[in-house]
Write a structure and sequence with these properties.
- This protein is mainly alpha-helical.
- It has 11 helices and 2 strands, in the order ααββααααααααα.
Length: 341
């Protein structure tokens, strides 16, 4: 793996190869996970039709994106198709039969423009930071993945957050690029550059602890599974299982932050769609207390099962594909080195 490869020039992989491996993993994760969310949104729209300006979250397995319904009942977008379903399995069958297999990936391409680069930045930065901290501290302790994971996620969120806000503005107001430039300039003139990072706080409060817990548990579980199987390096199956377990644990432990982040994201989308100034939001802790007062402690863990079902396979597919890609490039580099001798 990368931590063993870093000191060994023959087995090391370059940052570009790490980016290619993570980019491939991101695309495969989206292809496998997106149909689950498309079906969920279609069932949701059937139960409660989206009104004009209504925002909903779309997850491609890599990150959440805001979608804004533009034309109310007259909307012809993919999530307003007339096919009726009786359940999840029925939705899969009917969408495939009547709308074509491609409809299971409706709305995916625009989200990949940000999700894939964000994932590439995140995974490549994590590996680079982890190897740097191992070399700098001389420690192989499990605190290193925890710190590297937290810092890598914070960096990725900081880079992508303004782009997601800009995408929401474009979609909700149907702006041209020239109009968008004017809109951003006026927002910056009125509220300063930090206004482009609105929503950064709740996202960081969810994603940074998730990432720290995920990488801590992933490295720990993978190491133990390798030890039990008496293997020097993790197989695809071990990486897959380690990713699923660590993703599920991190998803459960950070669920209250996910509930708060989802509510904040919807509020931000609604303010953009209705073209009203976003109200000054209360702190995350106050919002959590309000949710607890309204719905009890259970309210902070709303959506427990759907989140675990979505996050565990996404993490498993992403990390196992990424590790497979890194192993491929390691062997390729070793063969090139041997042939060059």
């Amino acid at each position: 793996m990368a931590e063993e490869a870093a000191p060994n020039p023959g087995g090391a992989i370059t940052p570009l190869q790490q980016m290619l491996a993570s980019g491939t993993g991101a695309l495969l994760t989206s292809l496998f996970v997106t149909p689950l969310d498309v079906v969920k949104i279609r069932l949701q729209a059937q139960r409660t039709p989206f009104s004009k300006g209504k925002c909903f979250l779309y997850c491609n397995g890599l990150m959440d994106h805001l979608y804004v319904c533009q034309n109310g009942n007259g909307c012809t977008a993919w999530y307003k198709a007339p096919t009726r379903f009786t359940g999840t399995l029925d939705a899969f069958v009917k969408i495939t039969r009547y709308e074509g297999v491609g409809s299971l990936w409706s709305g995916l391409p625009p989200t990949l423009v940000m999700a894939v680069p964000a994932t590439v930045i995140y995974f490549t930065t994590y590996d680079q930071l982890r190897d740097y901290l191992h070399a700098r501290t001389g420690s192989r302790g499990h605190h290193v993945p925890l710190v590297a994971g937290a810092l890598a996620r914070m960096g990725a969120v900081t880079v992508i957050s303004p782009l997601e806000l800009i995408r929401t503005k474009m979609q909700s107001r149907q702006l041209s690029y020239r109009e968008l430039r004017v809109c951003i300039r006026s927002a910056v003139a009125q509220d300063g550059w930090l206004s482009l990072w609105r929503g950064w706080g709740p996202t960081v409060l969810r994603d940074v602890p998730f990432s720290a817990l995920y990488w801590f548990n992933y490295e720990l579980v993978r190491e133990r599974l390798c030890r039990q199987a008496r293997l020097d390096e993790a197989t695809f199956a071990i990486s897959f299982a380690s990713g699923a377990v660590s993703g599920a644990v991190a998803a459960v432990l950070t669920l209250p932050f996910d509930v708060v982040k989802t509510r904040r994201q919807i509020e931000l989308g609604d303010s953009e769609a209705l073209r009203v100034p976003a109200s000054k939001s209360s702190s995350t802790w106050l919002l959590m207390q309000r949710i607890r007062a309204e719905s009890g402690t259970r309210g902070l863990f709303a959506g427990f099962l759907p989140r675990v079902i979505k996050v565990a396979p996404a993490c498993a597919i992403m990390i196992s594909t990424y590790e497979f890609g890194k192993t491929f490039f390691q062997k390729l580099n070793q063969e090139r080195q041997r042939s060059g001798l």
